[in-house]
Amino acid sequence: MLNTAFLNEIKRLKSLADTGLLYCKNEYDLERYHELQEIAMRLLNGFSGKSFEDLQFMFPKAVDYPTAKVDIRGILFSHDKKVLLAKESADNRWSLPGGWADIGYTPKETVVKEFKEETGLEVIPERLLAVFDKKMHPHPPQPFYVYKMVFYCKAVTTEINKGFDVLDVQYFDVDNLPELSEDRILKSQIQLLAKKVFENDCEVYVD
Question: Are residues 53 and 75 in the same domain?
Fold first, then answer.
């Protein structure tokens, strides 16, 4: 049975093939790297069920050294210690506000922008709480290799005005969370983050 560990091996195989194609000058080795790349894509196709066309769109030809993608999110609590979540339109489940890191924005600027776009709230990111490596947590398998940065935020405004790309925005008790978008955040991660905030633990969690 295919599992997350096997998917991580496929990602590594494709990364090595992409890197080899970028830097190798030997025609013999280039042919082998192309073959490795094709094997990786076939394995991803079999694992994910996505078409080769979709995979080629998701994984365009590498023009630089392949690196992990970065997902940046913020956690904000109400005065009664409830956590703010946004309902994702992609899967109809809840997550911390945030998304992929944007070129030209610092991590903190990305959090501020995502909160404004998704919730209508203006926030101040006070400190970095955690850097999660998704392979170290029981997220559903996905093709990308992802680091997740989560900042503790405080609200400057209080009026919620949900964005066009989310279905709802609400506060929830940390011990009574709704169905989460587990590709984006896990209950165990929210509880870890909440514990750090409520106990004033200033050490950044890093996998």
Answer: no
